[in-house]
Amino acid sequence: MSVAPSAQRTSSWRVTSSLAQRVGSVALFIAVWQIAADVAHSRLLPSASAVFIALVQQSVHGPLLFNLGITLARVAAAFVVAMVIGTAIGIVMGRSRTIDALFDSWLVLLLNLPALVIIVLAYVWFGLTEAAAIGAVAVNKIPAVAVTLREGARALDPSYSEMSESFHVSRWRTLRHVIMPQLYPYIFASARSGLALVWKIVLIVELLGLSNGVGFEIQLYFQQFDVTHILAYTIAFVAVVQLIEWAVFQPLERRAGRWRQ
Fold first, then answer.
1. Residue 199 sits in which domain range?
2. 52 Cβ contact list (under 8 Å, min separation 6)
3. Within a domain: residue 14?
4. Per-residue model confidence as pLDDT tens for the chain (261 residues)
5. 21, part of any domain
6. Cα distance between residue 143 and residue 248, in whole Å
7. How far is CA 259 from the centre of its chain?
8. Helices 48-60, 227-244: crossing angle, 10 deg rounding
9. Cα dihedral sign for 113, 189, 88, 130?
10. Which of 260, 89, 90 is nearest to 160 (CA)?
11. Total count of domains within the chain
12. Are 31 and 47 in contact (CB under 8 A)?
């Protein structure tokens, strides 16, 4: 009976230790930033305290929260579209040599096509609309997701599929309980890199052709050479993305990987 409490204490200690390390790392970064700003004493390198004050002011009295919400909505839409389509394409290509041979060159082409070109073409063809912006971002991410999931599909253990066939398990249950658990590490790896890539491309989309969002605000402050507010908006968005990593991706990844234990 004493094993479970001991294991629980060990797990709690690990979580606390990991959290302390993360907080300490952030504190160290802020301290180095503050010292570097004090030494440089330049408006091109504002201090951490000045950026924090600007962040609070923009959150309370400015449009930061509004623009942050709009950008996050675009990121979420493009991310979901890219992950769903890219995952489906990757699994199909990984399981079928014929389809892989037919469309591999397409993936290579899209992977090497600059994001700026796709964004500009989307705006030229479909106009400065939300659908064009989200579609352009998704198209930039779909090939990377497909390549990652294709490698995951190729690495599936055939013995599990053979066992499901011998027990006459339906295709849906095989996909859900046999194939997808083996693909979870690839899905989460793709999701992490995808979120990092998607939000950066969304900022470019907003900067080039939209009239709101974090990217639009950064463009305005760039024209004024206001580095303080540029960093304030950047840090606000990075903080939200980091929160998603800690509160969503990591717990889901631990839960999805329990079957391996």
1. 69-256
2. 232
3. no
4. 444 556 556 656 665 766 677 778 888 888 898 898 888 888 888 888 888 999 999 988 889 899 999 999 999 999 999 999 999 999 888 888 888 888 888 888 888 888 889 899 999 998 888 888 999 999 998 999 999 999 888 887 777 666 766 666 666 776 766 777 778 888 888 888 888 888 888 888 988 878 888 889 999 999 888 999 999 998 888 888 888 877 777 777 777 666 565
5. no
6. 24
7. 25
8. 80
9. negative
10. 260
11. 1
12. no
CATH label of the domain that carries residue 142: 1.10.3720.10
pTM of the full structure: 0.79
Structure tokens at 131: 């659908």
Instruction: Tell me if 149 sits within 8 A of 86, measured CB to CB.
Output: yes
> What does the H/E/C string look like for the chain?
CCHHHHHHHHHHHHHHHHHHHHHHHHHHHHHHHHHHHHHHCCCCCCCHHHHHHHHHHHHHCCCHHHHHHHHHHHHHHHHHHHHHHHHHHHHHHHHCHHHHHHHHHHHHHHHHCCHHHHHHHHHHHHCCCHHHHHHHHHHHHHHHHHHHHHHHHHCCCHHHHHHHHHCCCCHHHHHHHHHHHHHHHHHHHHHHHHHHHHHHHHHHHHHHHCCCCHHHHHHHHHHCCCHHHHHHHHHHHHHHHHHHHHHHHHHHHHHHCHHHC
